[in-house]
Amino acid sequence: MDDYRKRVADRLLAKKLKSAGAVLIEGPKWCGKTTTAEQMAESILYMDNPDRREQNLRMAEIKPSILLSGEKPRLIDEWQIAPSLWDSIRFAVDHGGGEGSFILTGSSVPAGLSKTWHSGTGRFARIRMRTMSLYESGESNGEVSIKSLFEDNPGESLASASAIGIESLAYLVCRGGWPRAVLKSDMETALDQALNYYESVVTTDISRSDGVKRNEQRTRALMRSYARNQGTQASIRALRADMEAHDSVSIDEDTVSSYINALKRIFVIEDLPAWKPSLRSKTVIRTSDTRYFSDPSIAAQALGIVPKDLIYDLNTFGLMFETMCIRDLRIYADALGGRLYHYRDKSGLECDAVLHLNNGDYGLIEIKLCGDTLIEHGAKTLKELAGRIDTGRMHAPSFLMVLTGTDSYAYQRKDGVYVVPLGCLRD
């Protein structure tokens, strides 16, 4: 991969090493954290190396400074295996380590370490790494830049064509952005990467972050329910009822919550927080998070779906496509120094994604799989929400965009709304 398509996490790591003593890269297994870190590291400690794992754990308790000794930046891969290393790294940074001393990678968040995270304030920078966006994997041509929509307002000069058809899009949803899958030329082998990940989650990984043994049948049922409820603000009670109705699984709400939290700690689930703008009216804004998997292929595996199934079930295809768009938009938001949110109010007005930059600028985005009718509905929603913003108290939106799947062209409508295929988008 050339510099033009260098992964967002690679760029963020290079930047953050210049301003922080240690950089923590978190994300799901197999998303490329170690590879990204290895490119920047001058020395490496693989905590999970089977030949040295027990010795590493003992040394972390007896004399952790030995594990931290090496050329800087020193990579501590899968650091969470020995959580006590956090304080040792913080101490080393405080006592002469300087910027760019350590890189930590972790595919799970150890339970009960909120105070430990707080102790790293000012010393640690954090990067949330995800599976690859379509631009990073080469499927998006990248001719429409979100940065340009914020800064240059291209207007009617915006024009691009996506080469992704409906069959290809269905395949990309089911394949996901797993680097190993992206590199496979054989489609069946590529699809197996997501299956292998899903099976690892339900059989072992859901228990590894806190050592609590969890039931495989319940895990599968919960993940199926989550897949059916993507893009919604389904409550724990609703998820529980859905599991019992579809899978005949007996489970209480506290157990559902504990399973969800375990899946969040290993970055399988990444819900989208609510946006709370200043409005002209006193409309009540819904504050519940929206349910999403971190990669659309996880949902496909949970439901046992292959690409041809999506083509014959456009409703499910639309939900899966939305999850892929949210993944890509989160990655692009990170690159631009922003965050992604959703909006929904009591009246039922809803916006799929709000990309909000740290300087207060933001863009409103509706996600539609295909078709002029859906694009028209999305544009109407965006204009209605934009009209409710109290521009005396906050910025007007920098742009309104309908993000599409199988539509061929990127362009600006006469009403100012951009229509952009995901296969044309980049940060």
Could you explain the architecture of this structure?
The chain is of the alpha/beta class. The chain has 18 helices and 14 strands. A seven-stranded mixed β-sheet has the order 7-12-13-11-10-9-8, sandwiched between helices. Strands 2-3-4-1-5 form a five-stranded parallel β-sheet, with helices on both faces. The two termini are 17 Å apart.
Tell me the number of structural domains.
Answer: 2
- Total DSSP E strands: 14
Strands of the widest sheet, in order across it, are 7-12-13-11-10-9-8
Share of residues in helices: 40-55%
Shape designation: globular
Strand count, sense and barrel status of the largest sheet are: 7 strands, mixed
From the N-terminal CA to the C-terminal CA, the straight-line distance is 17 Å
Which blocks of ≥5 consecutive residues have pLDDT under 50? none
Per DSSP, the total helix count is 18
- Label the structural class: alpha/beta
Note the beta-strand portion. 15-25%
**Gyration radius over CA:** 22 Å
Overall mean pLDDT: 93
Brief description of this entry?
It contains 18 helices and 14 strands. The chain is an alpha/beta fold and 427 residues long. The longest helix has 22 residues, at 187-208.
Question: Which properties best describe this structure?
Answer:
Rossmann fold; 14 strands; 43% helix; 427 residues; 5-stranded parallel sheet; alpha/beta; 15% strand; 18 helices
Task: Map the helices and strands.
Layout: H1 8-16, E1 22-26, H2 33-40, E2 43-46, H3 53-62, H4 64-67, E3 74-77, H5 85-97, E4 102-106, H6 114-118, E5 124-128, H7 134-137, E6 144-145, H8 146-151, E7 160-161, H9 166-175, H10 179-182, H11 187-208, H12 216-228, H13 236-247, H14 253-265, H15 296-303, H16 307-311, H17 314-335, E8 338-344, E9 350-357, E10 362-368, H18 372-388, E11 399-404, E12 409-412, E13 418-421, E14 425-426
Parallel strand pairs: 1-4, 1-5, 2-3, 3-4, 6-14, 10-11, 11-13
Antiparallel strand pairs: 7-12, 8-9, 9-10, 12-13
Helix pairs in contact: 1-2, 1-17, 9-15, 11-15, 12-13, 12-15, 15-17
